[in-house]
Design a protein that fits this description.
The chain has about 150 residues and is mainly alpha-helical. It is about 85% helix and about 0% strand. It has three helices and no strands. The longest helix is centred in the last third of the chain and has 76 residues. The radius of gyration is 35 Å and the shape is rod-shaped. The chain starts with a helix and ends with a helix.
């Protein structure tokens, strides 16, 4: 019962994150201080990705990189923040799912160990009982042969 509810909750959380991410994108450029900081983030990200692409494609990396204009920087940073939010929530949901699954597997393994231990104990008890029955049979054979 817990598994389907948890999976449905995770799916609902992921579904709700997309509009929240879009809202973050929309509201990102309104506050002047926040706008200034996300523009800086976008410019750093732009320089990093441009240099990375140049290295991958074998182009010169010592060429100056033109900064993004303000609107493009705000849009790029808003997209980055929105996607970061969605991926973070998805990543957290995956981590919780893996932890929950590993705990359930550990409980199953513990139950299997206990069951195996019980079977071993029962086997030992049966072996003792068989040994006692063999002794009893031997005693009965001896008493039936000795009519004294």
């Amino acid at each position: 019962m817990m598994l389907p509810l948890f999976k449905l909750g995770t799916l609902a959380l992921r579904t709700l994150c997309k509009p929240i991410g879009n809202r973050i994108k929309k509201e990102a450029g309104i506050d002047p201080r926040f706008r200034k900081s996300i523009i800086a983030i976008a410019q750093v990200n732009h320089r990093f990705t441009t240099n990375l692409q140049r290295r991958i494609y074998g182009h010169a990396t010592d060429v100056a990189i033109r900064p993004l204009n303000e609107e493009k920087a705000v849009q790029a940073a808003a997209d980055l923040l929105g996607e970061l939010f969605v991926f973070s929530v998805a990543g957290i949901a995956i981590v919780f799912e893996v932890r929950r699954s590993s705990k359930a597997e550990a409980r199953k393994e513990e139950l299997r160990k206990q069951e195996l231990e019980g079977l071993k104990q029962r086997d030992e008890e049966l072996a003792k009982e068989v040994e006692q029955l063999k002794q009893r049979i031997t005693e009965l054979k001896v008493t039936t042969k000795d009519p004294a």
